[in-house]
Write a structure and sequence with these properties.
The structure is a single chain. The protein is mostly helical. Helix content is 71%, strand content 0%. It has three helices and no strands. α2 packs antiparallel against α3.
């Protein structure tokens, strides 16, 4: 089998679209902030007994700003 006949995952058109550094950074930071959002809201509501509306607004807004700062810092945006 020659090298031009070998199948590479990067040759698939849809994979080529997502197979870059920016998308992979976007993927792991998105997952991290989603998990962090769930943990912080449940901690604030269940453990600290804050109201759900105010704590979720503050946490979601704060994590939104942190996500933007992180995206700018790792040069995704």
């Amino acid at each position: 089998m020659t090298s031009e006949n070998k199948f590479k995952i990067e040759d698939i058109r849809i994979v080529k679209f997502f197979w870059n550094k920016s998308f992979l950074h976007y993927l792991w930071t998105g997952g991290l902030f989603t998990v962090l959002n769930i943990v912080l809201v449940s901690l604030a509501v269940d453990v600290l007994h804050f109201s759900a509306a105010s704590s979720s607004s503050i946490i979601i807004g704060g994590l939104f700003l942190l996500r933007y700062i992180l995206y700018r810092w790792i040069d995704v945006m």
